[in-house]
Design brief:
The chain is an all-alpha fold. It contains 10 helices and no strands. Helix 1 crosses helix 10, helix 4 packs across helix 5 and helix 9 runs antiparallel to helix 10. The chain is globular, with a radius of gyration of 26 Å.
Length: 333
């Protein structure tokens, strides 16, 4: 099936820009996707000395061999050093459990956001209008089915990982490590296919109003019959996402440079931490985070609109029989 890609991309952007209410659902949907986390693998840091032992560098308690911290921080540092180890363990457990619960809540909200976003795009394309209440009700109405799709996806991913692990290990050992490269490529391709397959299950459930069992086969058949256009669309979206990511990296540069310069005297031991410069860097970083969230929400809406609009074109030539009438949520006038 031939697709006018420029028209499709332009139509998706028009929906994204015109119906800004979808940005909220794009933000929620993005919560279940890739995060903005970073690596904490750096091993180079100032050598803080909390010991009273004068033989260890002859620094009194709270002073630092590579520079001084602001005096107003000194009492806080001393108080923290007196906290019992068991108290730190308790604090750590509480923080970890809180983060896990928060992550679970965000993940569940992302499912509602995903359903509301897909349904909102369909409503915008069909009726040229969509309200927050309408999109939210679609998301909550399809929550259970979308949740089950994610559970199935987790089980399938785990099973594939177990199946591929042993052959990859054996081939890698036999080929002295060279076999890892093609096996990793195979795993990467399989991962993309599975990801697209389960994304299409979402479309079947929300767009065609089918159950999870029927969505499994339907999603596979639509993807298989349109593998060429699907591959081209994913390449286009990957290229656009890469460009946006590079743009965000450039946007991050000012805050990163300012924060680094504020810490440079402390790192080199040439002076104290520049708190004014650090505060400015933190403000710039917060502004960068807010801008990143907005860009991520908009990109999620646009990318989802591209795939949903393409899906609607795909199913026009192979429609399913009319779905049983469902009781739809009542939308207040």
């Amino acid at each position: 099936m031939k697709i006018n890609y420029s028209t499709l991309l332009s139509k998706a952007w028009n929906i994204t820009w015109k119906f800004k209410v979808l940005w909220f659902f794009g933000f929620l949907a993005a919560l279940g996707g890739a995060g903005w986390g970073g690596s904490g693998g750096g091993s180079s840091s100032p050598n803080f000395n909390f010991s009273n032992d004068s033989s260890s560098g002859n620094y009194p308690r709270g002073d630092y061999p590579r520079g001084d911290i602001p005096k107003e921080w000194q009492s806080a540092v001393d108080q923290l050093s007196k906290i019992d180890v068991n108290t730190w363990i308790t604090i750590g457990v509480v923080v970890i459990c809180s983060l896990l619960l928060l992550g679970l809540a965000f993940w569940l909200l992302s499912i509602v956001g995903r359903g509301g976003l897909i349904g909102g795009i369909v409503a915008a394309d069909t009726n040229d209008k969509v309200t927050f209440r309408e999109a939210w009700d679609i998301g909550t109405h399809n929550f259970l089915r979308l949740f089950l799709i994610r559970l199935i996806g987790f089980c399938v991913s785990l099973l594939l990982g177990v199946i591929l692990f042993l052959p990859t290990l054996l081939i890698g050992i036999v080929t002295c490590g060279l076999g890892f490269i093609p096996m990793i490529c195979v795993g990467f391709i399989i991962g993309i296919v599975v990801n697209v397959w389960f994304a299409y299950m979402d479309y079947v459930v929300v767009v065609e109003k089918r159950g999870v069992g029927e969505a499994i086969g339907r999603a596979w058949s639509v993807m298989r019959d349109n593998i060429g256009p699907v591959a081209i669309l994913y390449i286009i979206l990957f290229a656009v996402t890469l460009g946006v990511g590079l743009g965000l990296l450039i946007l991050f540069a000012p805050s990163g440079v300012v924060i680094f310069l504020s810490m440079l005297p402390l790192i080199t031991g040439s002076g104290a931490l520049n708190t004014g410069l650090l505060a400015a860097g933190i403000v710039l970083f917060v502004l960068f985070i807010i801008a990143s969230w907005i860009v991520q929400a908009v990109m999620t809406v646009w990318e989802t609109a591209v795939m949903v609009l393409a899906y609607r074109e795909f199913i026009q030539r192979s429609p399913l029989p009319a779905a049983p009438t469902e009781t739809q949520p009542q939308i207040a006038a």
